[in-house]
Amino acid sequence: MKSISLISIFIICLIPGLSAGTTIYVKPNYPIEALKKCIEGWVEFEVTVMPDGSFENVKIIESHPEGIFDEAAKEALRKHNLVPKELIGATEPTHGVKRKISYKLDGECVPT
Predict the structure, then answer these.
(1) pTM, whole model, 2 decimals?
(2) What architecture is the 11-105 domain classified under in CATH?
(3) Over the stretch 57-87, which tens digit does the pLDDT of each residue have?
């Protein structure tokens, strides 16, 4: 049996005009059922970035395939921290920031 090489990629997507300073993130877990079936996909969120870089009001805008990666992506997003240049020293939250987490398999996948 061939081994499965796995890599999950985090892609940062921000609303136009909001440039990122530093992003601290944890690699998202690949859902085991998606891995067993060799499924790739993504989840796009809209969030409010708080002055400390944490996220609130997390809302899934779209995901593909729908529902497969939603929970794993939400969990990964809870561990991320964004410090946009515009927010350094700011005291107000920034609403409507978009983030996208993609899940991709690296190499050959053999469904179980």
Answers:
(1) 0.69
(2) 2-Layer Sandwich (3.30)
(3) 999 999 999 999 999 999 888 887 776 555 5
